[in-house]
Amino acid sequence: MRIPDETLSEKFAGHYAALQFNQIPSAVIDAAKLHLLDSVGCLLAGSRLEAGKLAYDLAVATSGAVANSTSTLFGTVRQVSFLDAVQAMSVAAHCGEMDDIHSGAGTCVGAMVVPALIAMAEKYGGTGRRFLEAAVTGYETIIRVGLSIDAPKLFAHGWWPSTICGAFGVAAAGAKFLNWTADKTVNALGIAALHSGGMITGGNEGATARHLAFAHAAQNGIHSLLAAQQEFTGPKRAFEDPRGFCLTLCAEPKWEYLQSFDSFHLPEVAFKPYPCARQLHAGVEALLKILRRTSLTPAAIEEIELFLPAQNAAMMNRPSITASHAATVGSGQYVMAVTAQRGKIDLVSFDEEYLASEKVRTLMTKVKVSA
Question: pTM higher than 0.90 for the full model?
Answer without folding.
Answer: yes
